[in-house]
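#lab-general

N.A. 3:47 PM
ok so I finally got the sequence cleaned up, no stray characters, all 425 residues accounted for. can someone with queue access submit it? mine expired

B.Y. 3:52 PM
send it over

N.A. 3:53 PM
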Amino acid sequence: MYVNSTVETLKIIAQSFFQPFSLEDNLLVTLTALTSGSGVGFNRAMLFLRDGDRLRGEMWLGPSSAEEAGDIWEVLSTPGIGYIEIVEHNRALVRKNEDTLSRRARDLVYAADVDGILIPALASRLKEILLVRNAADEPLVDRRFLDILQVDEFLCIPLIAGDEVLGEIVLDNAITRKPIGPGDIKLASLCGLIAGNYIHSATLHLKLLEMEKTAAMGEMAMFVTHQIRNPIVAIGGFAEQLLQPGLSEDKRERNVRIIREETRRLEHIIFQMGHFLKVSLKEPVFFDPAPVIASVLSSPEIQARKLAYELRIDVEDDLPLLFCDPTSFGEVLRNLLDNGFDATPPGGRVSVRGYRKDNGWYVLSIRDTGKGITNPDKERLFKPFFTTKEKGMGLGLPFIKRVMDTCGGKIEVRSRVGSGALFKL
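B.Y. 4:20 PM
back already:
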């Protein structure tokens, strides 16, 4: 994808916010669109973000020379370039300029709500776009900021959502010295509006996740207490008996065997909890899913389980590259296969199918011929600790959903009681 018009500029900014990237990466996409040669066309973009009662410099994106500017736009104008390439290019550029542009931007911190505030923070205080010309002669411009910027004309765009100021972008043409015109200001303001609302949405989403996490922690505490109480009581009781004199060898062996089994049960509970509570999955990358699928299907665990079932595999050749963490992807497939085997009576069938959809998606589905899932249970499948298994912990499907969300994918469930279940990634 490459930016060749105003519409394309806004399109790449808006669509990037639906990709599975971090807030920083998506804001980098915005700064790229603002500084790309055929886009809005500014040379450099400095980003400030609101941090409590402070406005802090976060990053500064742009070339350090005309030659570097030409090289950057040559990369970004490559036909077929997409969000992944743009994000990776931006990360590299920010790292390259870490000791120059971005470092100097992070040295700038302003009180956001005090009288006598200077430009650039004044634009956020007034909630107005400010175009500064002849900056050296403007007494309202902070001299330290001007010494860093080294230009005489720049544009301040406050990032606002509702009535709340969330940050600010400062734009200039330090390389080309092209004057900033009304068209530039209008388009930059639209980009700022999109970015401001995205920051607001992302912040609300993080707050919601924190609230859900707090509620889940309380539920988890009750669940863990219930899960580990019985094994601990059993281990304590049978260990106490081992200390009694005169215990027969048969009972001693029985007690040791029970203690070993309950210890393994505790290890399993702890492993499952630790696995689910991994807050940050590995960063998604493009990878060939064929070796991962083959590795899972040929693993000793799956090979042993399939002996009691009919396992059908129908995965297309020449699979597309997928955007996910390969290890997590393998765990997702293994989890769904285990669920399929658990739900299906011996002699039943579990099917794995992989195929492309016309709209650019790749689908991997696992179908079983088990008892099926009721509608009330379907609504609760992805809630932590909900399970229909006698010895289940209810953490497998929530983990799968977390992986799919991180990858920008989705999971669908279709089932009727008595007709098995179909899980589609």
